[in-house]
Amino acid sequence: MHWGTEYATTESSQQEELADFLFQNGVDIIIGNHPHVLQSMHKKTIELEDGTKKDCFVAYSLGNFMADQTKENTTSSIILKIQLTKHIDEQGNKTITIDNIGYYPTYFYKDTSVSSQKFRILDINEYINNYETTNTKSISKNLYNTLVDAKNNIANIVGDDF
Three-state SS for 75? Predict the structure, then answer.
């Protein structure tokens, strides 16, 4: 979905209402964009009008994966991972369950000290882990602190369930 208020890290009531409408009308998974920043994610089981239940998931906004923007929260994103299982009952009815949701936090890094290939997408966990566990410091203390802050901010925005 292309929706939401630019640079707002929380979804609007309109986004929530539209997500509920889409879920009631056959949609199982919504992956949103437009705000240029991350917004929360939610998995829930809903009951349809006929009394059946189904799993649903919404990521209101995954933020910028790659964009040279400087506004707050525009350099952090995630790579989303979702495990789905397809079920077929004895009558041949097909359903899916959303069994596992997770993410890899990323950071869009601009290296202004070089003239070419100055943009990189960093796996935040990998860079933090390498900085903390090796003697070779491939990033500066300043970038390390930026990545730690970005990781904490991502967790706060996305929510605790993932």
Answer: coil
Residue at 6 is within a domain: no
H helices present in 25-140, as ranges: 124-133
| Helix, strand, coil shares, percent, the chain, to 5 | 25, 35, 40
Cβ contact 56:43 at 8 Å: yes
Reply yes or no on whether the pLDDT at 129 is more than 80.
yes
Q: What's the total number of domains in the chain?
A: 1
pLDDT value of residue 128? 95
- Strand order of the β-sheet with 119-123 is 76-88, 94-110, 119-123
Q: How many residues does the chain have?
A: 162
113 in a structural domain: yes
Range of the domain at 64: 13-158
User: Tell me, what's the pLDDT at 159?
Assistant: 81
User: pLDDT value at position 118?
Assistant: 87
Residue 5 within any structural domain of the chain: no
Q: What angle do CA 28, 162, 119 make, to 5 degrees?
A: 95
Task: For residue 77, list its beta bridge partners.
Answer: 106
With a cut of 80, say whether residue 87 has pLDDT above it.
yes
